[in-house]
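Example 321, ligand zinc ion.
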Amino acid sequence: MSFSKVSLSGFFPFRSINSLSPFRFSLPLPFRRVRTTCCTQNMSCSVSSSAHVEPKNTSTRWRPTCLYFTQGKCTMMDDPMHLEKFNHDISRDLPVDAAAFQRKCSQDLDFFLVLDLEGKIEILEFPVLMIDAKTMGFVDLFHRFVRPTKMSEQHINKYIEGKYGKFGVDRVWHDTAIPFKEVLQQFEAWLIQHRLWGEGRGGRLNRAAFVTCGNWDLKTKVPDQCKVSQIKLPSYFMEWINLKDAFYNFYKTRRSDATGMVGMMKNRRISMFGSHHLGIDDTKNIARVLQRMLVDGARMQVTAWRNPDSRTVEYLFEDRI
Ligand SMILES: [Zn+2]
């Protein structure tokens, strides 16, 4: 797949890490560069975890990921200053400790595709992290910023400034965003490359499932965006794992601890990285909750199926978030 190159010479697309996050908590000490609030909630754990999933290279500070790189468009890979400032190795934030394999149970699926969309009016960001069910490790990332199709330029500019300006990534959004229809075409090529889906055959993913934080992404937002973009809802979006339902039913937590990503992370005492509501960072943090569940012995199952005829959704769990 080829991409048009963008000129990045002489500017950094991000603000300093010290100023970009509106919310963060409990970074391990080697990563702390700002004053943080520790996660001190002392929750009872129905399954205690001796295995630990935390970023490796603890002597190295956490760095924001290069959002040109995640979209295959970084042209500064030979610039030492750029490489020092921005992370170009996604697996760095998703390490798996060897001890984690002790409690792990076998999975019915080979891969998990962690997806966390951004954009309330139209989709603005489409990040998908591929996690190996056996090794629990990072395999690949598909990430695109998405340009709305039914909005005026003036509305888009205001929308993006409000959404991404506070993270300092509005420039990279404008440099890289493409329409949803093109995003899906590139995503399908990515699925085929990984043998997760067959274009000719249609149907479900091949031994893989999307993992989302809630039902909103695939129950509501993608079908809505497909209508706006005037495309048929693709067959691979018909089922998914709602991590909140899986988390709530596996750990038997209080409902309030499983209603969102931050609550689940606090409940498991997982430190949060990056900027909350930046899709790529949320996806990584959700993937880290998934990794913890796999470490703790959860067998992940699809929790929601869309009925293509009636357009209703059926659920695995009766007791849901
Ligand atoms: Zn880069």
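Summary: The mean pLDDT is 83.
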